[in-house]
């Protein structure tokens, strides 16, 4: 983890004024990549206005997981009867 030393910082170690954020951007980005959330404070009252956090990468989906375990076929025209669709014959 990268330590960023700031002068006179009364807020949490993950909250930075705009000036501090700009001055330490690369180090803060490394902290975000390590899973930390960084708040950006604005104005004289130092209100939190933004939060920087790591983007969660989508899980890779496996395609073809049923390959060799399931199959289907269709007629030449692609039309099927209701019984074929339901998988059983309807009683009249």
Structure, explained:
With 92 residues, this protein is an alpha+beta fold. The chain has a domain of 38 residues. It is 22% helix and 15% strand. It is built from three helices and three strands. A three-stranded mixed β-sheet has the order 1-2-3. β2 and β3 form a beta hairpin. The longest helix is centred in the first third of the chain and has 9 residues. It is rod-shaped. It starts with 14 loop residues before the first strand and ends in a 6-residue tail after the last helix.
Summarize the structure.
With 92 residues, the protein is an alpha+beta fold. The protein has helices at 18-23, 25-33, 82-86; strands spanning 15-17, 38-42, 47-52. Strand 2 and strand 3 form a beta hairpin.
With strands numbered from the N-terminus, the spatial order across the biggest sheet is: 1-2-3
Task: For the record, give the distance between the C-alpha atoms at the N and C termini, rounded to a whole number.
Answer: 72 Å
Query: What's the overall geometry?
Result: rod-shaped
The overall pLDDT, averaged over residues, is 80
Radius of gyration: 29 Å
What proportion of the residues form beta strands (DSSP E)?
A: 15-25%
Helix content: 10-25%
Report the total helices: 3
Structural class: alpha+beta
- Segments where pLDDT lies below 50 for 5+ residues? 1-8
Question: What does the main sheet amount to?
Answer: 3 strands, mixed
Order of helices and strands: EHHEEH
Number of strands: 3
């Amino acid at each position: 983890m990268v330590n960023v030393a700031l002068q006179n910082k009364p807020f949490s170690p993950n909250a930075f004024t705009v000036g501090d954020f700009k001055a330490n951007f690369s180090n803060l980005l490394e902290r975000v990549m390590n899973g930390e959330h960084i708040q950006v404070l604005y104005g004289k009252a130092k209100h939190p206005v933004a939060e920087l956090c790591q983007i969660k990468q989508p899980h890779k989906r496996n395609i073809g997981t049923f390959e060799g375990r399931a199959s289907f076929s269709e007629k030449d025209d692609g039309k099927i009867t209701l019984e074929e669709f339901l998988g059983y014959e309807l009683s009249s």
